[in-house]
Design a protein that fits this description.
The complex is a heterodimer of chains A (360) and B (216). Chain A has 360 residues and is mainly α. Chain A has 14 helices and 2 strands. Chain A has helices spanning 2-26, 58-66, 90-96, 101-124, 142-171, 173-176, 178-210, 219-225, 242-266, 271-281, 291-322, 326-332, 337-343, 345-359; strands spanning 136-138, 334-336. Chain A has a two-stranded antiparallel sheet. Classes of the chains: A mainly alpha (360), B mainly alpha (216). Chain A binds chain B through residues 142-143, 145-146, 149-150, 153-154, 157, 182-183, 186-191, 194-195, 197-198, 201-202, 330-333, and chain B through 69, 72, 116, 119-120, 123-124, 127-128, 131-132, 134-137, 159, 162-166, 168-169, 171-172.
Amino acid sequence: MAKSLWCILTRFLPRLLVMVLLFTGAQGLLVAPGAAQGIATGVTMETGPENTLGNRSDAEIWHDLRLGADGIVTPPSGPDAGTVINANGTWWSNMRRADGPLVRYGGYGLAGVVGILLLFFLIRGRIGYGEDSGKQILRFRLSQRVVHWTVAAIFILMASTGLILLFGRAYVVPFAGKTVYSVLATASMQAHNLFGPVFAVFLLAMLFLFIRGNIPKPHDIWWILKGGGFFGGHASAGKYNFGEKLWFWTAILAGITLTVTGFLMLFPDTFAPEVVKTLQAQGLSQIPPTRDTIHYSELAHAIAALIFIGYALGHIYLGTIGTKGSLKGMVDGKVDENWARAHHDLWLDLQQKKQQETEK
Amino acid sequence: MTLIQLLEGPLWKGSAAIFVVFGIWRLAVILFTGRTRAKAKPAGSPFVGSVRTILGHFLPGAAIRGHGKTWFVTLAGYSFHIGLFALLLFAAPHVTFIRDKILGVGWAPLPRWGFIVAAEFAFAGLLALWVRRFVDPVVRLISRPDDHIAAGLTFVVMLTGCMALGQQSVFLRGLHLGLVEIWLVYFPFSSLMHTFTWPLSRGLTGAMAGRRGTRM
């Protein structure tokens, strides 16, 4: 009895499902487009003698379905019309597994950044600038400070929820269990999706408010050659040194990547196919406008986020405990003249020259 | 009784009662404790001054003209308040909650895209205004702990509400409801009361100016 039931479940029901699908496909209810992704031309079911299972094995049928057999389709429209099983996503599934390369190397990368910062702090200590001069100089306007800290607040939320989603299965499930992680994951996903567009808007505002001064200049070469003064000596810099400029452009480029890929993932059925078709028409992309787009988007999103977070850790370190007086500059807007002399002497000279001209 | 039953039952009723009773009490104190009568001869109409100030200050005139910092405060203020009230009154789970637990009647909720847009505006406005309290030296000086607690509580209430949007977790719903209840208890004793007191303070200021024959 049990054997018969098992036979019905494993052999008869799948075939019945396929036959029903074939029948409905023949009725024109389902589309049979040339959008199939595999090479199979269709599943053929030859009926064998009565009480037999035909001449094709289950493995053959599922093999054909996996390759996208024509005539058996589930989504009647959208980017995956004509595909029952998109086998192209297997690489992405393997990539993002808890024990996959993205989680492993992404984790190594972030741990490496934290390790380097700790080591740097132990070797170099806090970078100072001597005594306070008592003279303050305006470095950041109110609008710049508001936008900076708003971006920072949203970034912390986006980064923490994103890291939970990326690393949760590898690092949260073993300790807290699947139930706790499911709650964390759904909460993180909702918050991440909701704050994404706000982050994009404020990042755009940051681009406009901070771009002035962040264009690379010839004197940046000397700053690089002197190692930014991180290991001793003085490296002259304008309003922003080369490291800060690199951070600014990394944040902007990573932010653009995160925004574009984020929107593709938020609107996979509408936004993604249109964008990809446009890119293809311009000869800028070879990626087909299907779910594959989303897989590439997810990969680019994760890599851009890891770079962004890694660089942000360095920025946070240098802006707080790493450099005396920097945090005050971004909170109050003003810095001590000696701080400016130590870190941004070319900018200080320019400001003093402007002030002298105004006084004349 | 489970925690969620406690949050949806006695704790909800208790916090709502504190919100209503002490909110009314505070409004009554403002309205009925009286003020010293002005003895000078009025140079204009207090009533006209009051109405003009209450309504006129809705217009973002200074903001449009780009005066100082007001454009930012006006923009962020409108963004936050309109977004918040849209969420509070028209988010689908809130409409259901109001219908089932408070009024017995509901109304058409916002579509999902409308909810998302309202939430984006509310969060952007609240964050920008709250950040300003830390980075503007003058506003930082006049900000009291109550202002930060009020902003922080409102933020976490909104955040947990959005986190529970998937409606897949009783824990997340309970967390949101629990924070709403703390917010309701805190409300009547804090600067959050400006939700109801703004017409009174703005009206009084306008009336005093109107009586002196000036404008606010």
